[in-house]
Amino acid sequence: MKTNYKKFQEKFIEGLLMLSGTVTSLTVLLIVVFLFSEGLGVFNKKPIDDDFNLTIHAENRISKLSPSQVKNIFDQKIKNWKEVGGKDEKIILFKIDDISDFYTDDQLGKDFKNLSWCINDYIVKHRGVIAFFSKKYISKNFKGKILDVDKIKVSEFLSGDEWFPTARPVAQMGVKPLILGTLWVSLGAILIALPLGLAAAIYLSEIANSRIRNILKPLIELLAGIPSVVYGFFGLVIIVPLIQQLFNLPVGETALAGSVVLGIMALPTIITISEDAMRNTPRAMKEASLALGASKWQTIYKVVIPHSASGITAGAILGIGRAIGETMAVLMVTGNAAIIPTTLLEPVRTIPATIAAELGEAPNGGVHYQALFALGCILFIITLVINLLVEFVTKRKTLSKH
Amino acid sequence: MDKDLKISRKKKINQAIAFSLFTFLSYFIVAILFVILAFLIYKGIGVLSWGFISEMPTDGMTSGGIYPAIIGTLILVFGSMLFAFPVGVMAAIYMNEYVKDGWIKRFIKLMTNNLAGVPSIVFGLFGMALFVNKLEFGDSILAGSLTLGLLALPVVIRTTEEALKAVDDTFRQASLGLGASKWQTTSKVVLPIAFPNIITGLILSIGRVSGETAPILFTVAAYFLPKLPSGIFDQVMALPYHLYVISTSGTNIEKSREMAYGTALILIIIVLISNLAASRLRKYFGKKVKMN
To answer: In the 8-state DSSP scheme, what is residue A320?
Structure first.
């Protein structure tokens, strides 16, 4: 009886442990499900506010426009209907704010009582009109035509040059400037961190004596423990003004500031991983090299570094991964302008910073909200690729050993 | 002979140049660390006072203290560890003691590594979608703690696994040989030996969780809340979010700079204490085990 109970207890505990063992896999799965179900929803939506309509004259042949066409029309880059496949007719933009230019106060009535009548009247009278106004101003006997807007396409989302998710009449959701901004900042960070980090790793593993190593290593690990928001704050009060003065810029919040802060933050990752890899070089290999008459430095760059190349690569890739995903520090120092960067001295906006800055204002379930989740998907895929890459690089090393 | 000497001289010079460069760069990095720490401590130390950590913020967060943010961070750390610590330790025990080498183990390991690499803002998005919206916890301590807990999970699992791996296999064999069951061996022999290192991992993950901002942005953090929470469905203020808010978007950024320096210093102190405690603990228990 007692052994039965004991056996049951053993099994029960094993089951419990197994359940906990699956929790990380489950979490990754849930992240994928939730991120993608919300994020992919953006491609099922029209980038126009649900409460608003785009309307045209009833005899206009056009019935559907793409988001970028609508934008170009309202930016007056497209001035004639024939450019979007319609009749040769000049496009007349109508905005509700201009209504008093066309109708007197008497016609509009008290408290704009007759507003919907006036809008209808204006649209009927102008053949080339395109109007954007709230659905509530559509009168019962509305004589215009409601224009359909295309859904957001994946290709437009990825290659679009403009990110104005709250723009009117249609939101512009091109993530190219954000992706490029993220890459610029991360690339700058790794250019700063990699040489410095490698130098420190070589020093710690091959040059410094153990006493100095035991002091420096915990200090560098401490650098990894400082919260990113503190780095961001430090960047904001020190590095941003410094860059502004140094390069004589109107604002110091630039990609460079982000790169410097991220570079400092990526240092511990690179140092720790490369140093571990270098220390794993078999002593016999080093001593063989020294015995052949090579100097210590020759041994380092001809034996130790080639031997630990995969570890160093892994460290560098992980460092880039950290930099790409870093949110708060970047948000605080890069200026967050959603433009395609041309130099490091301009403000940029990264993917994580965009999510952090905009999610709070995006209405739940709306296009903007879903677009931010789509950004999260992109970020998730990038980091997944990076992790698998690291896995691959380190695995190759263990295979080649045998 | 003359040529050989020249070569060896050149070798020496090269080495000297390379080594002094590396030494210099290493100390440069340490110098950066010191500049950051020294600057923030120098600026923040004047702000620190009993009132600063025990009073509510006043005048649009330009004066008063940061008491509710400290309490909020403590609650979130406690809540997240309540979830992450037991689950993480159990997962690590399963990985290290129970499951055999094979594709299951490799798969779980890969997933844990992937989870560790997921950016914290993605955890924030996920926490918002699942806990805040789907499960309808709202912006709450519960949602924030669970999000932070998931973030800390890979860290806890990894450090616990390291701790378990460090236990010599002869202990397990001796226990099993005496007729103890697997769980008896694990709970009575392996865990007590690994315990100090597991606790060290716990302390380090506390340090990490207390400074995380992105995951709590949309799951729990309140901009300004002049009272303490009364239940797990309330919002709280938190130190890292508070620092972000008052240094970038407060009502008066210049005026609240002082408060920002103080808050940054408190965050650094938390990290310093947890790192110090972890390394002390490691040293203390390390000695004790050796003496036995």
So the answer is: H
- In this prediction, does ipTM exceed 0.85? yes
Report how far residue B240's alpha carbon sits from residue B3's, in angstroms, rounded to the nearest whole number. 63
Residue B291 Cα, gap to closest chain A Cα (Å): 22
What are the domain boundaries of chain A? Answer: 52-150, 176-401
Number of CB atoms found within 10 A of residue A79's CB = 14
Chain B CB contacts of A222 under 8 Å are: 33, 271-272, 275
Residue among A38, A297, A298 minimizing CB distance to B129: A38
CA distance B196 to B286: 8
Q: Are B272 and B104 in contact (CB under 8 A)?
A: no
CATH class name, domain A176-401: mainly alpha
Q: What is the mean pLDDT of chain B?
A: 87
Just give the CATH number of A52-150: 3.40.190.10
The strand pairing partners of A93, in sequence order, are A130
Task: For residue range A277-333, list pLDDT tens digits in order.
Answer: 998 888 899 999 999 988 888 899 899 999 898 889 988 998 898 899 999 999 999
The secondary structure of A155-202 as a DSSP string is HHHHH-S-EETT-SSB-EE--HHHHHHHHHHHHHHHHHHHHHHHHHHH
Same domain, yes or no, for B170 and B260?
A: yes
- Quick: pLDDT tens for A371-390: 999 999 999 999 899 988 88
Lowest mean pLDDT among A178-192, A342-356, B241-255: B241-255
Give B124's Cβ-side CA count (13 Å radius). Answer: 29
**Are B32 and A225 in contact (CB < 8 Å)?**
no
* Orientation of helix B67-93 relative to helix B239-248, angle to 10°: 130
Q: Which of A36, A25, A54, A210 is nearest to A130 (CA)?
A: A54
- Any A CB within 8 A of B182 CB: yes
Are the C-beta atoms of A119 and A102 separated by less than 8 Å?
A: no
Whole-angstrom CA distances from A212 to A222, A308, B34 are 16, 22, 16
